[in-house]
Design goal:
The complex is a heterodimer of chains A (about 100) and B (about 250).
Chain A (H helix, E strand, L loop, with lengths): L1 H25 L6 H33 L4 H29 L2
Chain B lengths: L1 H25 L13 H22 L8 H20 L8 H17 L13 H22 L1 H8 L7 H40 L4 H32 L8
Helix pairs in contact in B: 1-2, 2-4, 4-8, 5-6, 5-7, 5-8, 7-8
The chains are: A mainly alpha (about 100), B mainly alpha (about 250).
Chain lengths: ~100, ~250
Amino acid sequence: MRRLQYLFMTLSMLCLATPAFAQSAGGGSSSLVPVGAGIGMGIAAGLCGIGQGRAAGSASEAVARNPGARPAIMLFLVLGLAFIESLSLFTFVIILLKAK
Amino acid sequence: MLPLINALTALLNHWFAAPIVAVMTTLGIHPAHSTHPITNPITMQLIVMALLILFFLAARISLNVEKPNSIQHTAEFIHEFVSNQAEQVIGHGYERFMPFVTTILLFVLICNFFGLLPGFETPTADPVAPLGIAILTFIYYNFHGVRVQGPLNYVKHFAGPIWWISWLMFPIEIISHLARIMSLTIRLFANMLASDLITLVAFSLIPIVVPVLGLGLHFAVSLIQAYIFMLLAMIYLAMAVTHEEEASI
């Protein structure tokens, strides 16, 4: 029952939202590129944040367990962060290329 | 200072535009502006190059065992930092690669710091500059890989340890080596462009005080990106030069 309620609420929201969609499509000159760019960059940044958070968390745990291995852990941490970050930067570059 | 750079760019274009365009056209490259092919970022890179050469010359001339001056202290600090990293990553025989990786570190660092000056675009936020350094790194580590291991062993190194899967590994390894150029370029270029844009956005929202935070971020990103570029060059060198198999990054 609860689930049906949610479904109908969502559908009613979508019914209310149709004028907004029609407006953006009917305008002709406005494009959906900024919306897509925002959504794509949001997903990329969020998932990149999860990945970097996991890496940084594991690194701080490792340093807490074995403070002697700090330089090597820092090396791997910085490298890992650079590789994770570059994936979201690829998204950024694609958006820059497409959203001219 | 910005008018100075603009004037220098105009001067360089006045002198060198015709020969540069001629050379590029024979190579099959057509510059976007045939009358002024040299842009501001390239002028800034030339300035950084001149500054680095002056710095190294000054450090070389003023070398002194008894009374080291400040330039020597700076140079020794940089050398110690880079050689510590290189010893950790490359290990035995790292001294040979020190000039290359130190130059990468200093060049990228100073180019990134150029963007901190108000009104300047960062030279490395132009994709041409990182691409040049990345291609140079690619050629350099492949050259040293061939030199140390010999051509046949180096090519065999691409095929992986298991012979019956090597037909699959070989193209994948070649593509991943070529993708290193792309990833090195895009990492530096996109980071610097993004931090430039953040400063610009902060400036357009609240023009007082807040853009300084963006500049602080730009400073930190400059340091980290220069360090990472140097570190990756070292890792690629280490993977090309060492004989035993390592996990590919």
